[in-house]
Amino acid sequence: MQNLSFNKHPHEIFEHWYLQSQGRAEGQKLKQKIKIKSQTLIKNLFTQIVPSLDRMNQNAFVLATANKSGQPSSRVVLLKEYSPKGYVFYTNYNSDKAQDLITNPVASLNFFWAYPTRQVRIVGDVQKVSYEHSSRYWDSRPKGSQEGALASDQSKKIKDYSDLEDSLKSVHEQFKGQKIPCPKHWGGFIVSPKCYEFWQAMPNRLHKRTQFKLNTNGSWDKAFLSP
Question: What is the CATH number of the domain that holds 126?
């Protein structure tokens, strides 16, 4: 397994690890927006050995938030865009996680990849992306996903799953043969990193941990941490 110099910008290290988790060839042109391509030969080999790998979302991460009372909460969401400026995911702005972020706009992201065994933790400030930005991503989604987002009043109680199915049918009929515009209550958040931690599994639990913290000069202070 190749090691990446930790003298690089932390985002470059993240991107290197992220692409490796997808089995994408090193040296392939890096892209700012994530476009999951057909599986490589390496990944196909892994899926034969570990079939569950084929069903894993390599762009999944744990998003941790806290409400105004400091009560923490976490859930798995999907990374949709990334750049040195930050990491973008999309959600219903009325959801619990979105309300946490609107009230307390800081978050922690935890990426875990089993092959090779690595984690990246990112802590940063959070803000909404523009409506225009959200609309461009919304328009790229399958219509079924758009209908599902409109049908679900995310995080709100429902009496029965059939209520959700009825809501989906209603949305489907309403927009039959029509383009569905991005709703105002749906869109993206961008997490602007202030701290990275790269964790790499090693024998005897002497794991490698490297931390980068953004300082007041806008550069990154690096430290090695005990496991």
Answer: 2.30.110.10
Asked whether residue 119 is assigned to any structural domain, the reply reads yes
Using a CB cutoff of 8 Å and minimum separation of 24, what contacts does 77-83 make? Answer: 79/34, 79/111, 80/33, 80/34, 80/137, 80/188, 81/32, 81/33, 81/34, 81/137, 81/188, 82/11, 82/14, 82/15, 82/18, 82/32, 82/34, 83/11, 83/32
- For residue 220, tell me if it sits in a domain: yes
Matching residue, tokens 């927009």: 175
Residue among 55, 121, 136, 205 flagged as catalytic: 205
| Per-residue pLDDT reduced to its tens digit, 46-56 | 555 555 554 46
pTM of the model: 0.83
121 catalytic? Reply is: no
Give the range of the structural domain holding residue 190, as residue numbers without chain letter: 10-145+184-225
What is the per-residue pLDDT across 108-165, written as a single tens digit (0 to 9) for each?
Answer: 999 999 888 999 999 999 999 999 999 999 999 999 999 999 999 998 999 999 999 9
Task: Answer yes or no: is 169 within a domain.
Answer: no
The answer on pLDDT for 27 being more than 70 is no
